[in-house]
Design brief:
alpha/beta; Rossmann fold; four-stranded parallel beta sheet; two-stranded antiparallel ribbon; 5 helices; 6 strands; 46% helix
């Protein structure tokens, strides 16, 4: 039996794109810090990381898809924060951001992680940006690099 992805992942040589929303930047900046730390811990070199800032969560999918298609990224993490307000805007933005990122993943064949927190309050968002609940940016990068490493192994290619 061949088992892939259960042991420690070697992401060395992979190219990582990270797309970050400027909206709720006090949260997304902390998530980006966690994402970058995790990328380095998993063997990603500074020169193999591209960070792109976009206006909001809705804009993440298009730039993530561009990174996946044309920049040579092996994996892309999309980082954003949508906090529920008094209108249904939250539902549209969060749902369409997730849908767009999944569509981009399936169209490009490049793993794209949904690192978008969807919370009811700022306090909940802070807890997920390095607080009591962890860092969802870090978790997104771990997940997407794991997927990219599994795909690399399935393809039979070795790290650089």
């Amino acid at each position: 039996m061949r088992v892939i992805g259960q042991d420690e992942i070697d992401a060395t040589g992979l190219k990582l794109g990270i797309v970050v929303s400027m909206f709720n930047e006090q949260i997304t900046k902390k998530m980006l810090d966690g994402a970058l730390s995790t990328a380095r811990e998993m063997g990603i070199a500074e020169d193999d990381i591209t960070v792109c800032w976009v206006a909001g969560a809705f804009e993440l999918a298009l730039v993530a898809q561009e990174l996946a298609e044309d920049s040579g990224a092996d994996a892309v993490a999309a980082i954003g924060c949508v906090i529920r307000g008094e209108t249904p805007h939250f539902d549209f933005v969060a749902g369409e951001a997730a849908r767009g990122l999944m569509q981009a993943t399936l169209e490009t064949g490049v793993p794209i992680a949904l690192g978008v927190t969807t919370t009811d309050t700022l306090e909940q968002a802070e807890a997920r940006a390095g607080g009591a609940v962890g860092n969802k940016g870090s978790e997104a990068v771990f997940a997407v690099l794991h997927s990219a490493a599994v795909l690399r192994e399935l393809a039979g290619t070795e790290p650089d």
